[in-house]
Amino acid sequence: LVGGSVAIFGALRRLALALPQPAAVRSRPGRVWRWRNLLVSFAHSVLAGLWALFSLWHSPELLSDIQDGYSVSGHLLVCFSSGYFIHDTLDIIFNHQSRSSWEYLVHHAMAISAFVSLIVTGRFLVAAVLLLLVEVSNIFLTVRMLLKMSNVPSPALYEANKFINLVMYFAFRLAPQAYLTWYFLRYVEVQGQGAFLTANLLLLDAMILMYFSRLLRSDFFPSLRKGSAGRDVDGEKFLID
User: Fold this and answer.
1) pTM given for the model
2) Residue 225 within a domain
3) Residue 237 domain-assigned?
4) DSSP string covering 145-173, please?
């Protein structure tokens, strides 16, 4: 199932090659790969985000047993997203984007190792589904990056998405992450798989807060965007983030 998912995203990547690109992307070769990569990421976010919502809506009783709750839908979702993370890792490496996308590689390594452990043991699948609610937030975050890259001529569209993105960030990224962190620290034994997943979760907490600070600095406090050396942190590096 994971291998099939890798193949699906490989096909989506080929499809993205055939889609038209905005002039602002075509004029900068360094952005062509990023644009294509974001389109595939957008497809995963839509599919996985809606899938996670459906899984929890269809089987709300899963929330009462985060450690041992099980559903076929949730298991398939974790396999599906594992395939995406593997595909995206290979896409980054084979296109020589490792240096500029190293944070993505760290995140993907964490996600792949954690998800594989869940697939093998069948435990904590509900926690993975809760974490994948983040993909609902990623829909609007990816739209934000696509709009910035394409230099969209409609500021109103960007402004509307900016506030929707902030709300979704709280609802589907920060809230589930905070709840799971509290749950793991309070109820999960810090040994074996529990210790491994708790460590991953705490590292992910730090990454999410770092990304959130960048988002606020970029969209809501632009006067703080320049670092001590005068480099605009909302340039290509932030687009990658």
Assistant:
1) 0.91
2) no
3) no
4) HHHHHHT-S-HHHHHHHHHHHHHHHIIII
